[in-house]
C-alpha cells in the first residue's frame, strides 16, 4: 500500500507541475485550474489514498461503479463528478450521489436529474457536454454546439439544478487545440446568456496543456495519476 501511495503521490506531483507550467505559459494564475482525478476502474483504496494526498474532486463515468464508490467513500468529503454518458432511466439515480454532473448532453436528462436532486434535497451542479466532433460524425458524445443553448436553458430553469458551464472531450484523430478553441467560443457564447456558467471542463492526461491554453478551468486527469486502465471490455 505504501508503494501505491508513493506512486500516486509522484504522479500527482507531476500532473500538478504540468498544470502549473501550463498556467504560467498561458499567463494564468497557478490556482486558476482545478484538478478532477478520474478514478474509473480503480478501487476504493486508491480513492482513499488520493483524498489523503489532497485530492478533493474525483470523476467517474459508469453509474454502478460510481454509486458504489461514492457510497463507500462518503466519509472523505470528496466532490463526485459524473463524466460518463447517462441513460435517461438512470439520470435521477446519478443525481442522487453526484455533486457535479458534467455530461448533461440532452434536454431529456434534465427532468430526471432535477427529480433526483430534489429527492436528495441538495442542488446538483451541471455542465453541458459539448460535442467537438465534426458535424454528423459518430463521436464521443455531447450536444452539438447548436443544441447547447437549449440544454443549458433547461438546466437553468430546473429548480434542483445549477448550470455551471460546459464540458468536452477532444475528438479522436484531430489535434486538440483547434477543438478546444471551438469549445472556448461555445463557452463564451453561453456566458452571454448565463453569467453563472463559468466552468470549462476540458483536458485529460494527453491534452491538458492545450485545454489550459484555451481557457479550461478544470482538467479531468485519469491515467497520468493512476496508471493505465485495464482495456475496456
Ligand atoms: C476517462 C476520462 C477522462 C480521463 O482520461 P485520461 O486520458 O485517463 O486522463 C477524462 N474525461 C472523460 C470524460 C473520461 O471518460
Description:
It is a single chain. The chain is of the alpha/beta class and 233 residues long. It has one domain: Alanine racemase (TIM Barrel). Helices cover 44% and strands 16% of the residues. It contains 9 helices and 8 strands. The protein has helices at residues 2-25, 44-52, 63-72, 91-97, 110-120, 145-157, 176-193, 208-213, 223-226; strands at 34-38, 57-60, 79-82, 100-104, 124-129, 161-167, 199-201, 218-221. Strands 7-6-5-4-3-2-1-8 form an 8-stranded parallel β-sheet. The longest helix is centred in the N-terminal third of the chain and has 24 residues, at 2-25. The protein is globular, with a radius of gyration of 17 Å. The mean pLDDT is 95. The structure holds pyridoxal-5'-phosphate. The site of pyridoxal-5'-phosphate (PLP) has 13 residues, from strand 8 and helix 9. Pyridoxal-5'-phosphate binds at residues 38, 40, 61, 83, 169, 204-206, 220-224.
- Per CATH, the architecture is Alpha-Beta Barrel
Determine the fraction of residues in helical runs and give it as a percent range.
Answer: 40-55%
Alpha-carbon distance between the two ends: 27 Å
Q: How many strands, which pairing sense, and closed or not: the largest β-sheet?
A: 8 strands, parallel
Order of helix and strand elements from N to C terminus: HEHEHEHEHEHEHEHEH
Mean residue pLDDT: 95
How are the SSEs ordered, and which strands pair?
Layout: H1 2-25, E1 34-38, H2 44-52, E2 57-60, H3 63-72, E3 79-82, H4 91-97, E4 100-104, H5 110-120, E5 124-129, H6 145-157, E6 161-167, H7 176-193, E7 199-201, H8 208-213, E8 218-221, H9 223-226
Parallel strand pairs: 1-2, 1-8, 2-3, 3-4, 4-5, 5-6, 6-7
Helix pairs in contact: 4-5
Bound molecules: pyridoxal-5'-phosphate.
Amino acid at each position: 500500500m505504501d508503494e501505491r501511495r508513493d506512486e500516486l503521490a509522484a504522479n500527482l506531483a507531476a500532473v500538478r507541475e504540468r498544470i502549473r507550467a501550463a498556467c504560467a505559459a498561458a499567463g494564468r494564475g497557478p490556482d486558476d485550474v482545478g484538478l478532477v482525478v478520474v478514478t474509473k476502474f480503480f478501487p476504493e483504496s486508491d480513492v482513499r489514498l488520493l483524498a489523503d494526498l489532497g485530492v478533493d474532486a474525483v470523476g467517474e463515468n459508469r453509474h454502478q461503479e460510481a454509486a458504489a464508490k461514492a457510497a463507500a467513500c462518503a466519509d472523505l468529503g470528496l466532490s463526485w463528478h459524473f463524466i460518463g454518458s447517462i441513460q435517461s432511466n438512470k439520470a435521477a439515480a446519478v443525481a442522487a450521489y453526484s455533486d457535479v454532473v458534467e455530461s448533461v448532453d440532452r434536454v431529456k436528462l434534465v427532468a430526471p436529474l432535477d427529480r433526483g436532486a430534489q429527492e436528495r434535497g441538495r442542488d446538483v451542479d451541471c455542465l453541458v457536454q459539448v460535442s467537438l466532433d465534426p458535424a454528423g460524425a459518430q463521436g464521443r458524445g455531447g450536444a452539438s454546439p447548436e443544441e447547447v443553448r437549449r440544454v443549458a436553458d433547461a438546466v437553468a430553469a430546473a429548480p434542483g439544478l445549477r448550470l455551471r458551464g460546459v464540458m468536452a472531450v477532444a475528438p479522436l484523430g484531430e489535434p486538440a487545440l483547434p477543438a478546444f478553441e471551438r469549445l472556448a467560443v461555445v463557452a463564451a457564447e453561453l456566458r452571454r446568456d448565463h453569467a453563472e456558467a463559468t466552468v470549462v471542463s476540458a483536458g485529460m492526461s494527453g491534452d491538458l496543456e492545450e485545454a489550459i491554453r484555451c481557457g479550461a478551468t478544470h482538467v479531468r486527469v485519469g491515467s497520468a495519476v493512476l496508471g493505465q486502465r485495464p482495456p475496456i471490455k
